[in-house]
């Protein structure tokens, strides 16, 4: 299993540009998440999905959109990039939620480092 | 709202010693608490989970304690090695995996 894969690894955007961060998992997990991690800060949840066709906002959703058309893929869309979106973005997945070890454990991708200038 | 506090200062220890990292939370006790390891340029990797009714959990050289009275978890690495150098994140459940909140982490350096 490749686990959770993310593309691209690095990207520089200009203010106002758009882009999609790709995330794919091959573990057949129902739950998927997008986080951003800023220096010295904890991971902040942007959006999550509990299954194909179902998504919901996390703590910091403004400026982002997601979709979940398949179990495997959970892309994150930035429509009008702003300098405040400069961060490292992590995608994660977990088998389910609320059941304890092995179920709520999250598996993370390698991250995408995004800079908006 | 629930907040997690981890020591922002890096912890420097000598190889072979025990490293102890602290995670404090501010409000209600979570159903369980997790510890993750994060290496530079990589995503976090799950290490251990401890439930609110468990006082202690062990896995090889790792030990986690959970004190709901003190609202604190301690993470120990015994016989530490330079390969243990990383950032360690504490994560709390708030009622479902999608409501997990993460601390900022504590950076550990183990010197040979």
Give a quick set of tags describing it.
heterodimer; A: 117 residues; mainly beta; seven-stranded mixed beta sheet; four-stranded antiparallel beta sheet; 47% strand; globular; B: 112 residues; six-stranded mixed beta sheet; five-stranded antiparallel beta sheet; 11 strands
Task: Give an overview of the whole structure.
The complex is a heterodimer of chains A (117) and B (112). Chain A has 117 residues and is mostly beta strands. In chain A, strands 2, 4, 5, 6, 9, 10 and 11 form a seven-stranded mixed β-sheet that branches. A four-stranded antiparallel β-sheet of chain A has the order 1-3-8-7, with no helix packed on it. The relative contact order of chain A is 0.32. Chain B is mainly beta and 112 residues long. Chain B is built from no helices and eleven strands. Chain B is globular, with a radius of gyration of 13 Å. The termini of chain B are far apart. The mean pLDDT of chain B is 91. At the A-B interface, strand 4, strand 5, strand 9 and strand 10 of A face strand 5 and strand 10 of B.
Q: Can you summarize this structure?
A:
Chain A has 117 residues and is mainly beta.
Helix content of chain B: under 10%
In whole angstroms, how far apart are the ends of chain A?
36 Å
Mean pLDDT level of chain A:
92
Strand content of chain B: over 45%
Number of strands of chain B: 11
Assign an overall shape of chain B.
globular
Q: Which two chains form the greatest contact, residue counts included?
A: A-B, 30 and 25 residues
Instruction: Describe the global form of chain A.
Output: globular
């Amino acid at each position: 299993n490749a686990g959770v894969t993310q593309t691209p690894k690095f990207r520089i955007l200009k203010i106002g540009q758009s882009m999609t961060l790709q995330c794919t998992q091959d573990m057949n997990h129902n739950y998927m998440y997008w986080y951003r991690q800023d220096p010295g800060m904890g991971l902040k949840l942007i959006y999550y999905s509990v299954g194909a066709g179902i998504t919901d906002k996390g703590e910091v959703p403004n400026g982002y959109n997601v979709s979940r058309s398949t179990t495997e893929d959970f892309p994150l869309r930035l429509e009008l990039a702003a300098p405040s979106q400069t961060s490292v973005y992590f995608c994660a997945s977990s088998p389910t939620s609320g059941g304890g070890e092995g179920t709520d454990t999250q598996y993370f991708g390698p991250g995408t480092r995004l800079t908006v200038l | 709202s629930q907040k997690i506090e981890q020591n922002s200062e890096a912890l420097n220890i000598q190889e072979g010693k025990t490293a102890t990292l602290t995670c404090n939370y501010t409000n209600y006790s979570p159903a369980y608490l997790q510890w993750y390891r994060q290496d530079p340029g990589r995503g976090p990797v799950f290490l251990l989970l401890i439930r609110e009714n468990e006082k202690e959990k062990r896995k090889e050289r790792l030990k986690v304690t959970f004190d709901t009275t003190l609202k604190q978890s301690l993470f120990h690495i015994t016989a530490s090695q330079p390969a243990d150098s990383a950032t360690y994140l504490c994560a709390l459940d708030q009622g479902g995996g999608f409501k997990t909140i993460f601390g900022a982490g504590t950076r550990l350096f183990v010197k040979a």
